[in-house]
Amino acid sequence: MPESSPWDEIAVPGSDFNVRQVSGKTTVPCFWGRDAAGACLFIVELQGDHAAQYRKNVVTVHGVDVDLRGSAQGQQRLVLTLARQVDRDLFAGLCRTLAAALEHATDSASSLAVSLAHIRRWKAFLSGRSQRLSPEEVRGLFAELVFLMELIDRKTSCVAAVEAWVGPERSHQDFIYGNTAVEVKSISGVERSAIRISSEDQLESMNDSLFLRLYRLSNLPDSAQARSLNDIITSVQNRLDDAEAVEAFDQKLTARGYAPLPEYDEQRLVVSEVRNYRIGEGFPRLVRSQLPSGIANVTYDIKLEAIASSECETAALFMGR
Questions:
Q1: Which domains, from first to last, does the chain contain?
Q2: Which of 137, 267, 273, 312 might form a disulfide with 216, Cβ 3.0–4.6 angstroms?
């Protein structure tokens, strides 16, 4: 049964707007609202003056008006106004995800930063350039973010770690750092033991070392260790303590077609197995430099049993880091 709209029981006012506070434990008060024109609003109430931060980071979004308005007693309000009623359900889902993210903010400034970061991610989706990620794409992005967190947790600076995530920039491998390249793959807990290689360039690199990191992901919604795609993105965000890294991470998520949709809370995954493979002499692969003339756009599967001899320890991926 569809979830009721948060605006259903808010009357249209004669002037200004009517509001109802969002349930939850957000650091700053948040409200559902309706204005005199009947438009649906989402309002974030901030303490202090954040005009400079807003002007520096605001983004225009097709279908949503974004405005910072002055209020009484030294407050400001970030007001999101939906342009078209036809997008009401989608807007409600996006705002609910934003409200959940605001539970992790620490003050008004960080609440505004979180809000604007979410709005930037909405931009590509609401302008019609992105589609919802498939379950397979969700698992692939989830696995890459698990590896990104490991890079950060190994005391790599968050700026360098996000820079190393080059997959969203259409690099042949997902991560490149130092003279090491890493291709990240995921398989589901019920899939056969084979991985799909999507091009003749994926397992060939100009770097000295090339590795394959494989995550087996199991959909276990009742597990205490299970996380959704939205959860793991929040975990990465909580590790980023540099504005440059936050901005770069946001841009790369957008490039991957991600917007913080509530649907991405449904698939809850657990990393049930991790394997590492060193790609070199004797590793079964098809690469551009060895293909017969005229062959292109190669996609193929590799059986895990065939690469068992290339398996290596995790430490090999981080030598020198």
A1: 17-126 (3.30.1460), 135-318 (no CATH)
A2: 273
